[in-house]
């Protein structure tokens, strides 16, 4: 996956401020240009005029942009008014961005494992890949990125659909992946024998995929499970101390219904590890 042009959603929360910690590894993925986007919620009354708020916001974004320019990255700012998720999605589509980078902690969120409302709404409607950064709190109660080298050890849920194939196509373009865990989950089975047959089939098919990536020098392990896919995916990522979960999402796009596949929805919400969502349908 080449992250040539990245939209970074900024709301000036501690979480979004830490998003720039991801820049170095995105440069390794081909990053050339960043668009810093902030959306002013016009539904919330401000004592100051909207013009004053916009000017202050642009000043703060320009300061961030200057830091990026000093690192040799093209940077632009975009201050908009309206519904944050739809505006960010629109900018990414208009700019033909490679990726949207957003933090997982909203201003009203109480626990780190849940998504802020903007992030949740965005992944429902965008047709651009979304990298959801995750954070933990240190002993001083400060937010820290869960892991900086996110592409070193990735968990890849596979259901053998067209969407899974698109995810694998993206991974084939990624660099510096050291280790992969390919994971398939069986949800249903009338008998124990049927479940075992399904899992054996999964293991055979996963091993075929694994061999391709092993030839590229990547260490690959194969795992299967039975139960709720989102639970098994997030649990596996924690047990394996993965740096990233890479999976498909079946978002419907901007003009259609805002339904999201339940597994990618739940993983995005509850994972303590960063999640990269690859839309498989526009």
From TrEMBL:
Domain of life: Bacteria
Gene3D superfamilies, per database record: HUPs (3.40.50.620)
Domain UspA residue range list: 4-132, 151-279
Chain coiled-coil ranges: none
One Pfam family this sequence matches: Usp
Family that this chain belongs to: Belongs to the universal stress protein A family.
Protein name listed in UniProt: Nucleotide-binding universal stress protein, UspA family
Native organism: Anoxynatronum buryatiense
């Amino acid at each position: 996956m080449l992250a040539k042009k990245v939209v970074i959603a900024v709301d000036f929360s501690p979480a979004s401020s830490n998003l720039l910690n991801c820049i170095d590894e995105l440069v390794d993925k081909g990053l050339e240009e960043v668009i810093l986007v902030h959306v002013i919620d016009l539904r919330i009354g401000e004592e100051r005029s909207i013009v004053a708020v916009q000017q202050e916001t642009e000043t703060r974004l320009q300061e961030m942009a200057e830091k990026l320019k000093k690192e040799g990255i093209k940077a632009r700012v975009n201050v908009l008014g309206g519904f944050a998720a739809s505006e960010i999605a629109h900018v990414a589509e208009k700019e033909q961005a490679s990726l949207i980078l957003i933090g997982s902690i909203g201003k009203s969120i109480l626990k780190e494992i849940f998504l802020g409302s903007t992030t949740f709404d965005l992944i429902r409607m965008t047709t651009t890949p979304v990298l959801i950064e995750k954070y933990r709190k240190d002993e001083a109660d400060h937010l820290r990125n869960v892991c900086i080298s996110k592409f070193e050890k990735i968990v890849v849920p596979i259901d053998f659909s067209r969407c899974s194939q698109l995810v694998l196509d993206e991974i084939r373009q990624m660099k510096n992946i050291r280790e992969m865990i390919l994971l398939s989950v069986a949800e249903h089975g009338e008998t124990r024998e049927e479940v075992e047959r399904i899992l054996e089939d999964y293991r055979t098919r996963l091993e075929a995929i694994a061999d391709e990536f092993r030839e590229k020098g990547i260490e690959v392990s194969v795992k299967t499970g039975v139960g709720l896919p989102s639970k098994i995916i997030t649990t596996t990522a924690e047990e394996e101390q993965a740096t990233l979960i890479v999976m498909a999402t079946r978002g419907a796009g901007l003009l259609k219904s805002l339904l999201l596949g339940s597994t990618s929805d739940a993983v995005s919400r509850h994972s303590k590890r960063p999640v990269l969502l690859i839309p498989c349908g526009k």
